[in-house]
Specification:
The complex is a heterodimer of chains A (208) and B (362). Chain A has 208 residues and is of the alpha/beta class. Chain A is built from 9 helices and 5 strands; from the N terminus they run H-H-H-H-E-H-E-H-E-H-E-H-E-H. Chain A has a 5-stranded parallel β-sheet, with helices on both faces. By secondary structure, chain B is α/β, with parallel strands linked by helices. Classes of the chains: A alpha/beta (208), B alpha/beta (362).
């Protein structure tokens, strides 16, 4: 049985090569799949905590998320084969008319790190595509991002369309011009100012 | 009411020298949609006309833009609604024919260090100047005629790296391949300074330089101050050194909350910070007392308040910000980003009137 705390450290430090190697060794050594997953998630939780407290910044989060992603690529097929699936599914996208994706990508990576099944619809996403994806993937959560003030109305339109469609899903919004007040105004369930907060808020929303 | 006694050039130069000047210097930036709206609402002319009515004190002379494929705009495919093009960075994007929106970036041309070493770097260093010399000569003559404070401008190395590699690749490389980022930053800085030097040798003598680089988002810096100091800051120092050797002050533009970088900006030799976004929790009333002696402060007029088109809120914003700025005696007016199309022409005329009313020193 491996010392999985070393795997957690590799994720925390964004050490991709070590993280992939240790995941592979843990799998071939017969470690419990839940334990391996927990080690990875613990690493990303720590990254999120340090990002929120300004101990680390976006570059360090990105390399940690990359290490997590590559480790998950090894672990995921085994989890699926064992019938272990993430408890919650999130659909994420940048709203129609907006082509910016780094904030959305960062949140998506952090959510994957928190063991959400993440369906990334990309940028410039219409409300119809979001609603279709929620239905198709039985999503619990929608994450909407906008970087431009000019696309904030599109975010409002997306939230309204989601509500009008009748799908039962929580909506979390964020992005440079978005504020908590704006999120409340447009009827979103939650707002996150940064990717680390997006994990916390997402967990609260799906647990509610 | 206007009682200006100095030219724009004298006014801004005196601001940088911390000498008495008649009024707060002014400049602004407008979205193209804003100008279109204003033309419908009564503005006669385009951006230049709006700046003239503002009585802008600043005039750009050039924009240095080092690219690997100068002039490239190859159409790779086309249909009724869009064109897919390869641009001067080698990036492939889709441009919409009937929509006023930015292109959709499909793929960056330079995706890793091999692309940089083998293709991009050799092309860029062997290309000629990346600046419009003739345009700079004409603008210099115009600035001289109008008595405006003129400047060379460029996107600095962090911004250029991001435009070439994309934000995610850049930020990942900053953490995982620092030598790669140092090399890109170093080369870009060489090329920008080569452009500036060529203009200077041509007899185009600006009053300062203005560098653009968005190093922060609303809630903080893109990277740690330590990483900035290690990877990018040495090249900022080089740019400031080039300028100061010619007695030219340096304005540095970055959106977002740059508080964590301000001390390093000062140490690098930057003389002025712009645009001080309110949505990034930057407020003249706080920054002025802390940094007003070391940095000129440029901007901070909240575009969200201008966009409310509420005369009472706008007067409160301008009067309070100008009072705080004037206390430093080193403040210039600019919106805290660029003026969006939500601002009516009537509102902007009010802004100019309020600048005339509150912008003069006693």
């Amino acid at each position: 049985m491996s010392d999985l705390s070393i795997l957690t450290e590799a994720i925390k430090n964004g050490n991709r090569a070590d993280a992939v190697r240790l995941t592979s060794e843990a799998l071939s050594g017969g470690d419990d799949l839940h334990a391996i997953l927990a080690a990875l998630v613990d690493g990303m939780d720590d990254v999120g905590r340090r990002f929120k407290s300004n101990e680390i910044f976006v570059p360090e989060v990105l390399i940690a998320a990359r290490a997590m992603k590559e480790s998950m690529a090894q672990l995921e097929p085994k989890l699926l084969a064992a019938g272990i699936r993430p408890e919650f599914t999130a659909v994420i996208g940048t709203v129609q008319g907006d082509l910016h994706d780094i904030g959305k990508n960062l949140v998506g990576m952090m959510w994957k790190g928190a063991n959400f099944n993440v369906v990334d619809l990309g940028t410039n996403v219409s409300p119809e595509r979001i609603i279709d994806a929620v239905r198709e993937h039985k999503a619990n959560l929608v994450g909407l991002s906008a970087l431009l003030t000019t696309t904030m109305p599109a975010m409002k339109g997306a939230v309204q369309a989601i509500r009008a469609s009748g799908v039962n899903v929580k909506v979390l919004v964020g992005g440079a011009p978005i504020t908590g007040d704006f999120a409340r105004e447009i009827g979103a369930d939650g707002f996150a100012p940064d990717a680390a907060s997006a994990v916390e808020v997402a967990r609260q929303l799906v647990a509610a | 009411m206007s009682h200006a006694s100095l030219t724009g050039r004298e006014r801004v130069s005196r601001m940088f020298a911390r000498q008495d000047h008649d009024r707060v210097p002014r400049h602004d930036t407008f979205w193209s949609d804003t100008i279109l709206r204003w033309q419908i609402e009564g503005l006669s002319g385009g951006q230049e006309a709006a700046l003239e009515l503002l009585d802008s004190d600043f005039r750009p002379l050039c924009w240095s833009l080092p690219v690997p494929f100068p002039g490239m705009n190859d159409i790779l495919s086309e249909d009724e609604s869009s064109q897919t093009v390869r641009d001067a960075f080698g990036n492939i994007s889709r441009k919409w024919k009937n929509k006023e929106t930015e292109p959709e970036l499909l793929r960056f041309g330079c995706v890793d260090r091999d692309d940089w070493d083998q293709t991009y770097k050799p092309l860029m260093v062997t290309a000629g100047l990346h600046v419009d010399v003739k345009g700079a000569r004409n603008a210099f003559a115009e600035a001289h005629r109008r008595g405006q404070w003129s400047f060379f401008s460029a996107s600095e190395t962090f911004e250029m790296t991001r435009q070439m590699l994309g934000e995610e690749t850049t930020l990942v490389a900053m953490a995982s391949e620092p030598d790669f980022i140092r090399d890109v930053s170093n080369i870009y800085t060489d090329l920008i300074l080569r452009d500036f030097e060529a203009l200077y040798e041509d007899g185009i003598r600006p009053d300062g330089i203005w560098l653009f680089g968005d190093m922060a988002y609303n809630y903080g810096p893109m990277c740690s101050p330590a990483m900035y100091r290690d990877l990018i800051w040495p090249d900022h120092v080089r740019m400031a050194h080039w300028a100061h050797a010619r007695n030219l002050p340096v304005i540095y533009h970055s959106d977002g909350n740059v508080s964590a970088y301000l001390d390093l900006y000062i140490e690098a030799g930057f003389d002025c910070i712009h645009p001080l976004e309110n949505c990034a929790s930057l407020h003249l009333q706080d920054i002025g007392p802390r940094y007003g002696k070391s940095l000129c402060l440029f901007g901070n007029i909240d575009v969200s308040i201008l966009g409310s088109n509420d005369p009472v809120r706008i007067e409160q914003e301008i009067s309070s910000k100008l009072a705080a700025g004037k206390r430093t005696r080193a403040y210039a007016y600019h919106s805290d980003h660029s003026v969006p199309a939500s601002v009516s022409w009537e509102t902007y005329k009010l802004v100019i009137k309020l600048l005339d009313h509150y912008g003069y020193y006693d």
